[in-house]
Amino acid sequence: MGLTPRYLLLTPERLIAGAAEPGPDHWDRSVLIDVLGPSMNDADTVLSASPELTHPALVELLVDSGRIGPATILTVLHAEGATVEAAAGLVPAVGLAMPVAVNDLSRLWGVRRLDTASMLGASREDLVEAGATLAELLVHSPVETLRTLDTRTQTWARIGPVLMEAGVDATTALRQIADHAPTPETMAVAVESVTDASDLLAGRHPVAAVLTVIGNRVSPEGLAAVTERYGLDPGQAAEVMFGARVPTPETVHAVIVRVGGDVEVARGVMADSIGLTGKRFDEAIAPDVVPVLEFRSPDSVEPNADLLAALVPVSELVDMTQDLASQLAVPSTDVEGLDRSNPYADLEQGL
User: Fold this and answer.
1) Are 69 and 99 in contact (CB under 8 A)?
2) How many CB atoms are located within 10 Å of the residue 97 CB?
3) Region class of 267: left (phi > 0), else alpha (psi between -120 and 50), else beta
């Protein structure tokens, strides 16, 4: 058998895609008629040649032909001069898969992949399948993306530059990291990477600027990790946290973490650094004194005697109610036939 002639390999799909790919300046719709004409009825042939053919009607005509696929139809829309917004709106009718549509719209119309994803309402999973970069994912869905990262410090050391590259400001980046980093160590590394990549915190000690932003949303362990990452000793850490208005209990507990859990050593550090001594230190490390009532099954535990003693007996509650009612009684009026000395008389009669 001889070789298949080269021209026989040019299917309708390839012919139309090749003609449409260069864009509007080189497109001639007569290609559609020449290639698809044999498979179209007379009405469709006339319609395809009409200058008034709308883009939705063109899509319908091409889909009904069954001769070319969704990607080529999108290429034809671009060649026809459709706007990227109009093409995005026609993607469901074209039948193009979301990840492919995200990339093809970006490539053909020369717009950012994040913009086409927004036009299409693409999910994070769609972007992942489309091959989105970490920066694009962090802009599109920062919370979900940060939560999916592993716990290696090498991974989080990249976050600052990536967020800066994506156009996220330093304050927002720091807050997102503080809220979603999986460990104190990864948070400290990522925070440092933000201050290294940004000049918005210039003019201050980086850790002071950082704690001003996130000091109220980070655990004592996180505070300890951040201050240690920047090379502060426990006393310096206490001073910086105090200056950044980190709550005193969190500052004290962060210092306790820094000194290996030794409360007495931490007491000395706090006294020497910011003058926190005696009762003020004890109050800062005291456990929460607000009682917490647990919901339990009645059969699982004996009634709490103190709680029961604090309850008012039903009989006393009735007496209190009656006393209150008598105090609120409205004196009799001159309205004939109406007794207002007992405001509950009508209710009692109805019972």
Assistant:
1) no
2) 14
3) alpha
HSE-CB at 165 with a 13 A cutoff on CA atoms is 12
Distance of alpha carbon 286 from alpha carbon 289, whole angstroms: 8
Q: Alpha-carbon dihedral of residues 176, 179, 184, 185, nearest 10 degrees?
A: -20
- Picking from 20-34, 307-321, 331-345, which range would have the lowest pLDDT averaged per residue? 331-345
Contact 142, 176 (CB under 8 A): yes
pTM comes to 0.63
Q: What is the rounded CA–CA span in Å between residue 176 and residue 8?
A: 57
Q: How far apart are the C-alpha atoms of 322 and 62, rounded to whole Å?
A: 84
DSSP 218-262: S-HHHHHHHHHHTT--HHHHHHHHHHTT--HHHHHHHHHHHTTT-
Residue-wise pLDDT for 47-98, tens only, equals 666 778 889 988 998 898 888 899 999 999 999 999 999 999 999 999 999 9
Fill in the amino acid letter for 132.
Answer: A
Contact 58, 77 (CB under 8 A): yes
Structure tokens, 145: 């993306």
Through-space distance between the first and last CA atoms of the chain, rounded to whole angstroms: 106
Do 162 and 194 meet the contact criterion of CB atoms below 8 Å apart? no
Among 286, 217, 290, which Cα is nearest to 247's?
217
Distance CA 111, CA 147 (A): 28
Q: Which amino acid is at 149?
A: L
CB-based contact 120:98 (threshold 8 Å): yes
Amino acid at 53: L
How many residues would you count in the chain? 351
